[in-house]
Every structure is written in structure tokens, then in C-alpha cells.
Amino acid sequence: MLTKLKRMALGASTALTMTSAAIAGPYDAYEGTTLVVNFPAQPHYNAVMKILPEFTKETGIEVEVDQLPYLKMRERQTLELGQDEGDYDLIAYVVFSKADYVYADQLENLARYFMNPKLADPSYDADDLIDGYVYNIGFAGGNKGYLQGKTGSLFGMPYGSETSVLGYRKDIFEKHGLSVPETYAEMLDIACKIPQLEPGMGGLSSRAASGHHAAHAFLLHLAPLGGRIFDDAWNPIVNNKAGVQAANALKKIIDCGPEGAASFGFGEALGSFLNGDTAMFLDTTVVAGQIDDASKSKVVGKVGWAMHPEGVRRGSQTGGFGIGIPKNAENKEAAFLLMQWLTSKTGDKLVALAGGNPSRFSTHADADVNAKFPHMATFGEALKHADPDWRPIIPVWGKINADLGTTLSKVLTEGLDVQVALDGVAERTRGVMEEAGYYTWQ
Amino acid sequence: MKSQKLNRMTPYVFMAPAVIIMGLALLYPLAYMIYGSFRAWDPSQNISETEFVGLKNYITLFFDPAFRESLSVTLTFAFAVVTAELAIGVGLALLLDRNIRGMSVLRTLFILPMMIAPVVVGLMWRYMYHPTVGTINRTLKSMGLEGVDWLGQHALLSVIIADIWQWTPFIFILSLAALQSLPRSALEAAKIDGATGWQQIRYIKLPLMMPVLIVTGLLRLIDAFKVLEVILVMTEGGPGLSTEIIALRISRTATEFRELGVAAAMSNYLLILLLILTLGMFVITRLQEARAARQARQIQEED
């Protein structure tokens, strides 16, 4: 009897072991692995740092983070990705690095990971990810080479992505009976009314400093006003009617802006809004946290949020960061698991509650997230109009962007004629594109 | 015979470590840069994968209006700061070359600006120049004057002022050292002959300090051609290209435009320019020395 019982117990325990092996968790094989990741020092990734211990607790995978200033990241990544064996298992990259990394074959195509049943979580719900972000940051090889499309493929996931929204001073708007601008005409009108209604206050804070800042500010207006840098055959059309309108809008904003606005970088533009020197702020969503932080802001509780005003169409910016797996990574599968966890519904909600920028529609609509950050619903609405093509993501963009930014700075500070300035940009852009081989088929 | 050969080799053996270090640390990077300047080189590529393009990078740059503007900004900036710094630095040294109580404290205070990290200097001036909250405009406004758009309308002047503030002490300290090591006998003789203070400066102190001043000026000039951080932080080269000196353009070409070959060619242009300046200075010094020697010989012959 005893022997029988012993045999039964042995059989039961064997069966139990076998069952547990069969239903082994997806993370078991990677337990104890240490991933080395490269993240920027930026509000979203500061929030990510708070939730990473949760990932380790859940999966047993350790994460070592190399956090760098975002402008330094590119330099380090260029060195790391060019080696036979890199140090990083997962990297966060700025959107305009996508073109270079994919073109240099340095990022993993994510198809083989999402096809692997042992790695891909069936409840991931990729359709919930914000379309504009995925196409802007993750896709390559589709339309124009850098967008979604039938020939495109996924190389990264949006994480810490941003769009543009309009922040406005509720108290000032109420005091003067102004209504929140819905269109560009209304916004420009109010921007220039404010200095008269509130002496000493600027209308709208904008970046305008020479180079990247001025180019960014111009592009923010170009897409909603119906413009593009190139047509479908890569001919520069930045100097068309919409381009001139966008540059004039920027000039008007700066002229009616706070004192010294023409030399403002992003920091100064945000600073003047936080300081209460301007009534509106049209830029990235990433600043929302700082506006409600009493240690940094004098306008806590006074700021309302609205969608980026409409020109001939809606088209807010898409930018920020994505995460991808380098081709030379050591622990690619574990890196994918981290990437999937971070961008999953659970991970996205956790990071949003910690003060990060969510990448999913559902997180923007989530009750808990909205209870903590009431602006999230507006941001979610704005995201439906996020334009993945508001700025070209091609390898030569850096050079064109710099030229555009320095030329526009001359418009803002030296009184260079808008049409002449943009004609010059278009002509030089054509030269750059020609040299890069974009007209080979013409 | 063999030992003789070995003996002849001895100096070379002793020199070898220095030559190897020099070759590795100085010549290899330089050769690498020159080699790179003839190639179309993207930072994602290994240099061996790059394409040879001959002199294309140099020719493109030569006809590039942005590069020419950068070059002109660099020359204006460098000559303006070095002239002003030499004038103020030497002036201060002449004024303070005397026994004043607390002189050592004063001297330390004077050289403080050059001990501050360039990024901090840039940030400090950027905030001082701020149109609304900056110290300078607030002071001007409190005096009933109009505020000045420092980093907008007068960006180049603003960065020149910041550089003068930071680097005048360098000239001052070296000029003071030169002044204090001048032969007292010459000055005493001049005093006995009834030379005024100005005459002493004009005919004795300055000519005797000249070799030190030339080297100091040259060092500052070389440095001024390469200044990067202060301008990067203060204006990022703007507005337009008005403060984009070559060092900044090189950095942007390498990182923003991702054209390492062009950046290398630009560095070589800068190197050639500095070499010409250094050689020019060297020739001037030599000519001056030769003239002084000739004059000395003439005086001796007349005696």
C-alpha cells in the first residue's frame, strides 16, 4: 500500500513538474539576464527609471541604464552601433536618427520578434498604439522611404513621443473675454492682441534661435497651413504660398512675442511661459509636467490646453523618442521583452502615472491617468491629428534643417525678405538632394 | 666595427620612445584627419568603407557661402578679441606694476575668469544678456535707458565682450610677469635721463616686452580660432550665421550634417590658416631680431 502511495506521489510530482515546464513563463528563459540600455536624460525617461524595478520584479531580467544627455546620445550610439559587438541591448533614439540607423542596417527588423510565439504577447494590442507615432518613429521603407506604406516595415516602437498642443493662460483669456483659438487666423490675432491688452506680456512663446530652433518653429506652422518641404518627386516646395504663410506666421508670433523672442531657444521659450511673460505656448506635450510643478512654474493651475490650431488642415508635430534593438546587441530577445513590456498597456499606464508620455490611445483615455493629469484627454485628442510627415526624415535632413533654421533666423533678426529667404533655401536644398541622388530617376 | 655601429645607434635608441609616442599621439591623428578629408565619410561607416572623393570636400567648401561667412566671422572675432585683450591686458599690467597693498589678492581676483569652465561662462553671459531678466538690461532700464537686444541684434559684439572678459587676465598675467622681469637698469637710466612715464612705456617697456607679447598674442589668436563652448552656449552660432565661427561649423558638420569628410577638410583649412599665421608671426619676430641685431652692431661700430 505504502509503495503504491509512494508511486502515486512520485507520478503526481513528475506530472506537476512536466506541467510547470510546459507552462513556463515567457520570461523564465531570460531570468538573470542583465540588459544594458541607452536612454536619454529627459522627463519621460526619468519616469521610465521609476518603473524599471517593476519590470525586474516581474521578469527577473535586470536592466542597467546608461542615461545620457540626448544630444550626446547620437554620438555614443554612432560609435556603439558601428562595432561588431555593441554594448547596448536596447537604445532610445531621436526620431531623425531613424533614417540613418535603418539605412546603415544597424537596427533589428521587429517582424521576427512579433512572429515568435514565445516572445510576442497575444494581448499586446498593437492597434492601440498611436498611429502617427508608430509611423513616424518606428516605420521605414514605406512611402517616401521613411513612412508607413505597403513596402514598409517596423524597426522601433514609439516611446517618449511627443506632439504639439497649445497651452494658454486661462486667467488672461477669461479676464479679456478671449476665446481659445481654433484656427491659425484666430491664434495669430490673439497673439498680437495680448501685448496691447496686457502691457509687458508677449502673445505666444516660440523657439526662434538660429538653426534647429527656428526650423522647428517654422515646421510647426508649415504642416497645418498646408505646406511641405518636398513634393512627391522630392522637389523642394518650401518656398510656395504655404511656406511663405508659415514663415510669416512665425515672424508675426516673434514680433508680438516677449522681448528678445528672436533669440529664444526651447528653454527660453518655455521659461518665459513658465515665468508668466507670455499668454500662449505652442510646442511639445512634454512640458506639461513642468507647467504644473510649483518649483519651476509661476503659472501652476492657470494653464489650459487645446489642440494645435487648424490651418487648412490639422497637423500637429510628431517627435520625441523611439526604442529599438541594435543589430549588434547581445541579448536581443530579452531586449524585445523589455521593449514589449514598456510599451504594453500595463507599462504605458505605469509610465504615464510616473509622469511620462504615453504611447497608447487607451492610456490617454484611462480614468486613473486623467484623474492625475487632467490634460491627458486633450493630448489624446490632439494625437489623432499627429502628422508623421510634418518633417522629412531623410539622411540629408540635418543639413537642410540647419540651412532652413539659419536662413529663417535672418528673416527674424535681419529683416531678410521671406520669399527671398525661402527661395534661397529651396535652391540650396535642391543642390543637397541632387548630390544625395534623389533626382537619379528624373 | 660592430660596436662602433652600435655606438652610432645609441642616440636613436634613446630617442625612439619619444618619437614613437609623438608619432602615435600627434602624427597618427593628424594623418587620419588628412586622409579622412579626401573621403565621403558618414559617421555610421568605418573609414575603410568610405569612398575616395579626391579634393571634392575642399572644393565644395571653397565655394560654400556658409563656410565663407563662418571664416569671415572667425577672422573678425579672433582679431577683435586679441586686439582688445592685448590692449586691455597690457594696459592693466602697466597700471598694476607697482607695490600696492593687497596686490596678490587683486591679481588672483583678476585671473579668476579664466579659471571658470567655458560652458559656465557661456551660460552666465547668456543670462546676463537676457533681454528681460538679464542683469545688464535691468541695470540699463533702472538708469532710464532702453534695453539692448544683445544676443539678437548685437550677437557678435556680445560674444566678443564675453571672450574679452574671460581671456584678458591671461594677457594681463603674462604681461605683468614680463614687466616685472625687465632689466631695472634700463628703466633707471631712462628716469635719470628725464624720460616721462609715457616715454618709458613707449620706448622702453613695450619694446622690451615685445617678444613675450608676440608669443602671448599668438597663443590667444590660436585659441580664439578654436573657441567653441562659450559661443555654442550663448548663441548656437546665431542669429543667422552671425556668430558661427569655424570650430562651431566643424562640430555641426560632423554631428548634425553627418559629413565627417567635409568636417575634416574644414579642420585642415583651419590648420593651414593657423600655420600661416604662426609662420607669419615667426618671420616677423625673426625680422625684428635681425633689425635689432643690426642696430646693435651699428651702435657698436659707431662707438
Keywords summarizing the entry:
heterodimer, A: 442 residues, alpha/beta, D-Maltodextrin-Binding Protein, domain 2, 2 domains, 5-stranded mixed beta sheet, 4-stranded mixed beta sheet, globular, B: 303 residues, mainly alpha, MetI-like fold, two-stranded antiparallel sheet, 13 helices, 2 strands
In short, what is this structure?
The complex is a heterodimer of chains A (442) and B (303). Chain A has 442 residues and is an alpha/beta fold. Chain A has 19 helices and 11 strands.
Would you write up a description of this structure?
- The complex is a heterodimer of chains A (442) and B (303).
- Chain A is α/β, with parallel strands linked by helices and 442 residues long.
- Chain A has 2 domains: 30-163 and 318-383, D-Maltodextrin-Binding Protein, domain 2, CATH 3.40.190.10; 164-317 and 396-435, 3-Layer(aba) Sandwich (D-Maltodextrin-Binding Protein, domain 2), CATH 3.40.190.10.
- Chain A has helices at 2-22, 43-59, 70-81, 97-103, 111-114, 131-138, 170-175, 184-197, 212-222, 241-255, 266-274, 288-291, 332-343, 345-353, 361-365, 367-372, 376-383, 397-414, 418-435; strands at residues 34-40, 62-68, 90-94, 139-140, 153-154, 157-162, 164-169, 202-205, 278-284, 303-307, 319-324.
- In chain A, helix 2 packs across helix 14 (345-353), helix 8 packs parallel to helix 10 and helix 18 (397-414) runs antiparallel to helix 19.
- The longest helix of chain A has 21 residues, at 2-22.
- Chain A is globular and about 70 Å long.
- The relative contact order of chain A is 0.16.
- The mean pLDDT of chain B is 88.
- Chain B contains 13 helices and 2 strands, in the order αββαααααααααααα.
- Chain B starts with a helix and ends with a helix.
- Chain B is flat, with a radius of gyration of 25 Å.
- Chain B has helices spanning 2-36, 56-62, 65-96, 103-111, 118-128, 135-142, 150-153, 155-180, 184-192, 197-226, 229-234, 246-255, 260-302; strands spanning 39-40, 51-52.
- The longest helix of chain B is centred in the last third of the chain and has 43 residues, at 260-302.
- Chain B has a single domain (14-302), classed as MetI-like (MetI-like fold).
- Chain B has a two-stranded antiparallel ribbon.
- Chain B has 303 residues and is mostly helical.
- In chain B, helix 8 crosses helix 10.
